Amino acid sequence: MEKMQKTAKTRVILHSDLDNFYASVEEKKRPGLKGRPLVVCGNKEDRHGVVLAKNAPAKRAGIKTGDVLWQAKKKCKNLIEVPADFSEYLRVSKRVRAIYERYTDRVEAFGIDECWLDVTASARLFGSGMHIAEGIRAAIAAEIGITASVGVSWNKIFAKLGSDIAKPDAAVEITPENFRQTVWPLPAENLLYVGKATKEKLSRRGIFTIGQIAAASESLLEKWLGKWGTYLYLFANGLDNTPVYKREEEQNIKSIGNSLTNYRDLKNEEEVRALVLLLADSVAARLRESPLGRANTVHVFATDAQLYRYAKQGRTPRPTKNAAEIADCAFSLFRKVYPWKAAVRGLGVSVSGFTYGQEQTSFDDLAGKNKADRVEETVDKLRAKYGHGVIQRAVILKDRRLASLDVKGEHVIHPEGYFGK
Ligand SMILES: [Mg+2]
Fold it and tell me: For residue 268, how far is its CA from the centre of ligand 1 (angstroms)?
């Protein structure tokens, strides 16, 4: 009985986002540079270095994540460039996580510098969500020497929006009383998972704000955006009840996958290859933003125009989170299993067999040991900033309709969250 009451209770969810994380860690290491424009780049010997992060003065100079170093230097003459030190970022990230875990064991990482916390059960011990948020921010400032922005709400989506609004160095609460005033006027693309293509689809229908998504008809949204439309409708109305996953639950996630159907029939291997790359790209991106490590198994499934289904799985040559490696494996599996009795109508790629917990330094390759992975990390960042369409593989660009697909918006995603099952 008590358990039932507990689950019915309104949740208290925090989303904590470390401000300019890489740049803040570098500033902290070099107190003399405080206040001067600074960017964090890939390895210094890499002459085509890309800006991975910038501090506030560099941002004011107009420097953007993803700028090539020479562009950045043009914008700002006295720019200081420092090489990325990913093992240090990982160490700091773990120390911050330990601070979160003083308040709750329900901590779910979203990338290296963001976490969701479910503090519903801790509120009796530690006070309100805002009180906990300020306690966490103070602890991070005092013990780590960097700042965090925290959003407080009753669901993960609004908590994340809250930290975006709060940024930098503040906390904001989004309540059932104020969300219409605070959240609804925001642009649609501020909602988590609304990428560039989804944004464009919505704006073509006169939907520009989160409030307009909330006011739209759920069935129309579903018609326009597929299953994804329903989720956006729920998110915009504060009806997201995705749980904050604990570490052990993250470990139990069996696979991450994406699929596309009802697009148009694919008639040859070249077209299949392009779609496999696109799917593998988004699977790898989700894998990298998860704490699951690498995957050692790839699954491919296809439906043909007569609705016959084909599926095959196989091991990758080595555990991977690299899109090209996942795609190569998926494509060779496809060639083995698909008899080409009809064109391909639906195609899916997923990965499983995660190395989570088996390797201590899953961010090693971020430090530059694996260049292909590093490039993809940067691609993730660019996409997060500019939408999925900003970078695409050459093979995908051959097919303009395919290139305009927003995989994040179109893929079949499980309601449980950004992890598949
Ligand atoms: Mg951040």
Answer: 43
How many angstroms is it from 198 CA to the middle of ligand 1? Answer: 23
CA of 395 to the centre of ligand 1 (A): 32
pLDDT at 376: 63
Q: What is 8-179's CATH topology?
A: Alpha-Beta Plaits (3.30.70)
Interval 15-43: pLDDT, tens: 999 999 989 999 999 988 888 999 988 65
Residues 345-365 have pLDDT tens digits of: 888 898 988 876 554 333 333
pLDDT tens digits, residue range 94-145? Answer: 899 999 999 999 998 877 788 999 999 988 889 999 999 999 999 999 999 9
- State whether residue 180 is helix, strand or coil: helix
Chain center to CA of 241: 18
Asked whether residue 406 carries a pLDDT value surpassing 60, the answer given is no
Separation of CA 220 and ligand 1 centre (Å): 34
Residue 239 near residue 220 (C-beta atoms within 8 A): no
Ligand 1 centre to CA of 77 (Å) is 26
Distance (Å) from CA 27 to ligand 1 centroid: 15
Hey, which CATH number is domain 250-410, 1.25.40.10, 3.30.1490.100, 3.40.50.620, 3.40.630.30?
3.30.1490.100
Q: In this structure, how many other beta carbons lie within 10 angstroms of the beta carbon of residue 375?
A: 16
- Please give the pLDDT value at position 392: 45
Burial string for 195-228 (b: 16+ CB within 10 Å, else e) reads bbbbbebbeeeebebbbbbbebeeeebbebbbeb
Tell me whether residue 114 is one of the annotated catalytic residues. yes
Res 282: pLDDT: 80
Residues with CB under 5 A from ligand 1 (ion): 17-18, 21, 113
Confidence tier at 409 by pLDDT (50, 70, 90): very low
Residue 75 CB partners (closer than 8 Å, separation 6+): 61, 62, 63, 67
Written in H, E and C, the secondary structure of 238-288 is CCCCCCCCCHHHHHCCCEEEEEECCCCCECCHHHHHHHHHHHHHHHHHHHH
Q: For domain 184-236, give the fold.
A: DNA polymerase; domain 1 (1.10.150)
Mean pLDDT for all residues in the chain: 80
**Candidate list 26, 27, 108, 114, residue with the active-site label:** 114
User: Computed from CA positions of residues 392, 393, 397, 400, in that sequence, does the dihedral angle turn out positive or negative?
Assistant: negative
Domain extents in the chain: 8-179, 184-236, 250-410
